[in-house]
């Protein structure tokens, strides 16, 4: 069987288990002519165990209007806000402190994010997560 020819790759972030054909899904996929409800049903089924978390998805759209998608790990700021128990991060990071996370929280987030980070080992991943925490106005204890 011949390989399908790739038409486009679309990347969007959607709350897990709560995708609807409305924007941002409809506006991102509509111009490519794929069946939006088919994607919504498949995405919601694949993410039903993580309801409430924002999950980035990379959708490969082929010329015959079929698609496949790959789920990524949640964004680092989302995971850090959950660990710190915050609704949002600091408006002025470096000047005001929004909250704090522990070293154990940093390690846990780094382990979750490891497949999507370009880090060689866990220590490098932890450094990246610490940097994100610092840019959000979080203190690492």
Content of β-strand: 15-25%
> Quick one: overall form?
elongated
What summary fits the major beta sheet? Answer: 3 strands, antiparallel
Number of helices: 5
* Mean pLDDT over all positions: 81
**Which structural class do the helices and strands define?**
alpha+beta
Helix-strand topology string: EHHEEHEHHE
Q: Which strands sit side by side, in order, in the main sheet?
A: 1-2-3
Gyration radius from CA atoms, angstroms: 18 Å
Helix content: 25-40%
Question: Summary?
Answer:
The protein is an alpha+beta fold and 141 residues long.
Task: Pick out its properties.
single chain, 141 residues, alpha+beta, two-stranded parallel ribbon, 36% helix, elongated
């Amino acid at each position: 069987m011949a390989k399908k020819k790739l038409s486009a790759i679309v990347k969007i972030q959607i709350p897990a288990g709560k995708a609807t054909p409305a924007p941002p899904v409809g506006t991102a996929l509509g111009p490519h002519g794929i069946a939006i409800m088919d994607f919504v049903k498949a995405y919601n089924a694949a993410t039903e165990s993580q309801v409430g978390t924002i999950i980035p998805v990379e959708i490969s759209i082929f010329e015959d209007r079929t698609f496949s998608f790959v789920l990524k790990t949640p964004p680092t700021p989302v995971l850090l806000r959950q660990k710190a128990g915050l609704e949002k991060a600091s408006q002025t990071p470096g000047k005001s402190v929004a909250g704090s996370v522990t070293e154990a929280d940093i390690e846990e987030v780094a382990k979750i994010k490891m497949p999507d980070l370009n880090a060689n080992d866990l220590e490098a991943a932890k450094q990246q997560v610490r940097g994100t925490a610092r840019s959000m106005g979080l203190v690492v204890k």
